[in-house]
Design goal:
single chain, 189 residues, mainly alpha
């Protein structure tokens, strides 16, 4: 993350690294609730589904071993929140912490990728909006520069799902103060 800035405005040259804590929390919660806290039979349903999908017998022993282990043996290393990077610089990396689970990193990649793009994208765009606001308030009404914190108010939670609402809202809140996305307040704590 990010692979390119091709969908960003041409004035955005770097991407803000942020959201790794939220990704780790969401990943942990999802696996705890939907895998580790479930009986082994429910957790191994994925193996049966894969057999049907592939139309051959799928050996899901690695999922059984993971269920017995009771946690994801992955350590996440991440850039400090708010660091700006060039494209193609990874913002976080998962490191396997236990032999026998080399498959897990690739298995988690899609889920992590899905979770990890929203907050940095929102934070990068919000930082640019804030930069523009500061520039123009400085030029037109420098005595009220404090207003720049509230000029780019966040209303995105109207119609968003709860994870997106928190991720995008936290990204926005890194550089702006105004928000109607109330679930960001406890999430930021």
């Amino acid at each position: 993350i990010p692979r390119s800035l091709k969908n960003m405005h041409k004035s955005i040259l770097k991407m803000m690294a942020c959201g790794s804590q939220l990704v780790v929390r969401e990943l942990h919660s999802a696996f705890q609730e939907n895998f580790f806290d479930q009986p082994i039979e429910v957790a191994l349903k994925f193996s049966r589904d894969m057999s049907k999908y592939l139309m051959i017998e799928y050996n899901g022993e690695h999922f059984e071993e993971l269920h017995k282990l009771g946690y994801l043996p992955i350590r996440i290393q991440a850039l400090p929140e708010g660091t700006f990077t060039d494209p193609n610089i990874p913002h976080m990396a998962g490191i396997n912490t236990k032999d026998g689970y080399a498959w897990l990193g690739l298995f988690l990649e899609t889920m992590i990728s899905k979770l990890a793009w929203q907050m940095p994208t929102a934070a990068t765009i919000a930082a640019k909006f804030k930069e523009n606001s500061v520039e123009w308030v400085t030029k037109t009404d420098s005595e009220n520069l404090w207003l720049a914190d509230f000029m780019n108010h966040d209303f995105h939670s109207r119609g968003g799902n709860p994870f997106s609402s928190i991720a995008i809202g936290l990204g926005h809140a890194l550089t702006n103060s105004g928000s109607d996305t109330l679930n960001v307040i406890p999430a930021s704590r």
